[in-house]
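Suppose a colleague, Dr. K., hands you the sequence of a protein chain of 280 amino acids and asks what its three-dimensional shape might be. Before reaching for any lab equipment, you can write down a predicted structure in token form. Begin with the sequence itself:
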Amino acid sequence: MSPRFAQTFHKAPAERGHAISQVNVMVSPATSSYDAAKHRKASMTDSAHPPTKSAQHSVSERIRTRIQQAKRRFNANDNIAEFIEPGELEALLDEVAGKMQGVLESLVIDTENDHNTHDTARRVAKMYLNEVFDGRYVTAPPVTEFPNASGLNELMIVGPITIRSACSHHFCPIMGRLWIGILPNEHSNLIGLSKYSRLAEWVMRRPQIQEEAITQIADLLMSKVTPDGLAVVMQADHFCMHWRGVKDTSAKMMNSVMRGSFLKDATLRREFLSLINLKD
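The predicted structure, expressed as tokens, is then:
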């Protein structure tokens, strides 16, 4: 009998009332050597063909790792464009589409047979990355700056500027208006009129809460224009309140940020607030 399948049988003592068969299986040394060689060959093959970069980490993990190594924040309303390498935004769109497909499946939606939702996962991914949240993934729009050659120092108001965003709590729409007041000085940079809208849009096209959004806009404008004073007023409808929860469709949120002269000079502040028309 081959040693590999050698068996020994022992009959139990008679007083136990029954027979028990004991089986001992022996594995030949030749078989063990074969398995070990096979394992070594597989290890050598794996070493010769290591996993590709994309197989090791998803694109979102690679971007996140760069941000963490730079010790930077990446909250919902932060811009992370500087950490995204060429070609990665397209790969990130594919990743988001795949995960959105999983969300639809978990919602028990038959995307294979429902023609309305067949391509919904990719449409949503494109909407988030290329439209409503692209303020996170692209750099700030170029801004044309002009010297204040005439030494302008009177109040200028831009608005109402239409704003659109989504609340970072429920991803429900925020729709509203924005007014900007500038008190320049001789050293201020005067930017093109449309750039106020473009800069505000860049900030708002991220998951936001209104209290933080208006502060981000004010900080950005102060750095671009360097005026003596800046005033920003925002009024918006929040669909996380209109569409769900309390379902109050008439309530709006309004807030303001005052910097420099607008904060110190009550007369200037009143002039600005009286000139902007907040009525619908």
